[in-house]
Amino acid sequence: MLELISRLGQRGLDGAQSIGSSGLFLLRVLARRPDLPRLWPAIRAQLYFIGVLSCLIIVVSGLFIGMVVGLQGYNTLEKFGAGSQLGQLLALSIARELGPVISALLFAGRAGSALTAEIGLMKATEQLASMDMMGIDPLGRIIYPRFLAGLIALPVLSLIFTVVAIYGGYFIGVQWLGVDSGSFWSNMQAAVNFRLDVASGIIKSVVFAFVAIWIAMFQGFTCIPTAQGISQATTRTVVYSSLAVLGFDFLLTAMMIGGW
Amino acid sequence: MPSNLVEITDLRFSHDKRVIFNGVNIAVQRGKITAIMGPSGSGKTTLLRLIGALLTPDSGEILVNGSNIHQLSRSALYQARRKMGLLFQSGALFTHLSVFDNVAFPLREHTRLNEAMLRDIVLMKLEAVGLRGAASLMPSELSGGMARRVALARTIVLDPELMMYDEPFTGQDPISMGVLVRLIKRLNELLQTTTIIVSHDVNETCSIADYVYLIAAGRVIGEGEPQALQQSTDPLIRQFIYGEADGVVPFHYPARPYAEELLDA
User: Fold this and answer.
1) Which of A12, B74, B153, B216 shows the greatest Cβ crowding within 10 Å of its Cβ?
2) Tens-digit pLDDT profile for chain A (260 aa)?
3) Nearest by CB to A135, which of B49, B81, B90?
């Protein structure tokens, strides 16, 4: 029994230490004056890798999710004779929730895991240590460009997801199920408030980007530099990022609905 | 200016409860080639990482150019490291950059040289290690020995005051090995670079070293000029220098008796 309690305590201490060191890691990344012109090629390369190469999965997922929401929404609304409200349902559910959350989950799965594996491999092959020995801080040269690129890429990906998903719902609702195109768009226009709905979605995706990229970078940077260690770190990135995104989504939604 | 560029005093370091160094004292003379030799697992690579402040000792001090390297602020440490070069055992080339860009990387980060001048310097360094023709290759297209020579070119590109080589001769063919031995000696003579070589290759290392330290079991077991060590009668030193299997240092990791373990079905 005592051993169980001590093991539990040890896990608690390890968890607290890990949170503390990830906080210090974040501080060390952010508390620097970056030489942006010098870093720009690296940031541009990461924007391409994190952002442009994620477009396909974002567009395809957005299209299918929009189509499914359109189909399910129309069937439910039609029971109450409110099929013409489909545009409103689609825009609000996707712009406020599905767009930012699903983009962030896909981002964590595709880009986050790849970044953890990349940084972990750089650590295992002593590339980070050799950079350190050259008098170049890997936090500034390797981590910072990826951090910035992630912060820029995810909100844009989230917007792309939202637009494509709405068009997916439009295709199902208007082109296939016969909802009037005029009422689809005009109901959407009447119901959607830019500040409350679109801006809140963008704020959410910025927060999710921050959390997901922080977790990915920290896991890669602190992983055990072996094949097994990198694989475990990659798994942790996906699990922790997904849970963090869902947790922060609840918090942010509660704050936004509560008018904070 | 102190005559010793690196001074290690009463160094103690443990890793995972295993004592690696237990009171090591080493002095590396400015402008000389100092070799650190010892059996596998004796902590030679760890020693280089401690000198470069990639690791922190439990106690003792390491002075580099008169400053305790582990008490420097982060920015001062990075300044100090610009004057050091460490050739990693694995080469540690950046896999996303070509050979040329790998060698150019420290120059691009630390200098404002124009591309034409930078190109000339990089090609000169690659010529020195015999790989000018491989400038456009990616690290994945190089053999292990070639990758280490590219890493050497990258390490010397800023002409450091202190060069540390971690097993520079491992995996080199006889021709490359001869060139590397001469190159290390020439760099040391021409640039007055202080050199620390960690190596198992007794003959090659002793042929260019000015002073040799032998470390084993967490301490310095012998030191002196190569000729003096080769003539030493100390059984510990003789066993290592002449590669004798039976001696003070056991070849086998501690284990139960062989026959007993085989019969223990």
Assistant:
1) B153
2) 888 999 999 999 988 998 999 999 999 988 888 888 888 999 999 999 999 999 999 999 999 999 999 999 999 998 888 888 899 999 999 999 999 999 999 999 999 999 999 999 999 999 999 999 999 999 989 999 999 999 999 999 999 999 999 999 999 999 999 889 999 999 999 988 888 888 999 999 999 999 999 999 999 999 999 999 999 999 999 999 999 999 999 999 999 887 66
3) B81
Domain that residue A57 falls in? 36-257
Determine, for residues B81 and A132 on separate chains, whether the beta-carbon distance falls below 8 Å: yes
Query: Structurally, how many domains does chain A consist of?
Result: 1
Say if A17 falls within a structural domain: no
Give the list of residues 6+ apart from residue A64 with CB closer than 8 angstroms, or none: A168
A141 to B95: CB separation less than 8 angstroms, yes or no = no
Token pair for B111: 């200098």
Identify whether A5 is part of a domain: no
Asked if residue A8 belongs to a domain, the reply is no
Contact B78 A135 (CB under 8 A): yes
Length of chain A: 260
User: Does the interface ipTM go beyond 0.90?
Assistant: no
Give the residue from chain A lying closest to B52, CA to CA: A133
Q: B11 pairs with which residues across the strands? A: B24
Q: Is residue A76 part of a domain?
A: yes
Residues of A within 8 A of B158 (CB-CB) are: 134
Count other Cβ atoms within 10 Å, centred on residue B211: 18
Mutate to test the interface with B, among A133, A142, A226 (most CBs of B within 10 A): A133
Of A129, A135, A137, the CB nearest to B92: A129
Count of pairs with CB atoms under 8 A, one residue in A, one in B: 46
Give the predicted TM-score (pTM) of the model.
Answer: 0.85
CA distance A86 to A99: 17
What are the backbone dihedrals phi and psi of residue B232, each rounded to the nearest 5 degrees, phi first? -65, 150
Q: Is-contact B148 B156, C-beta < 8 A?
A: no
Do the Cβ atoms of A126 and B84 come within 8 Å? no
